[in-house]
Write a structure and sequence with these properties.
It is a single chain. With 98 residues, this protein is an alpha/beta fold. The protein contains 2 helices and 6 strands; from the N terminus they run αββαββββ. A 3-stranded parallel beta sheet has the order 1-3-5, with helices on both faces.
Length: 98
Amino acid sequence: MEPSRRDVIRRSLSAAALPALPVRDVLDFGAKPDGAALNTAPFQKAVDEAAGAGGGVVYVPPGDYVTGTIRLKANVTLYVEAGATVRGSAGRSDYTEG
């Protein structure tokens, strides 16, 4: 039987020596790793949910993600798996000030 995506995530995080914290996978928030879709909202929702719960890990699985501004928060770790690329959007309007 093939391991579940959650099992793979847990093994990856254990190998990275991260503490056992709640994990939010950006795919569960609607991120699309296709190199074209703008993934700012799914990334930010994952960060906000982790922060609201007191902290955790935002997991970015392999793929190509495009984002605008993402505001990281205290006690939240952004874990970018090997094979994942997070690129800034080419659109200026995808970024906020402050």
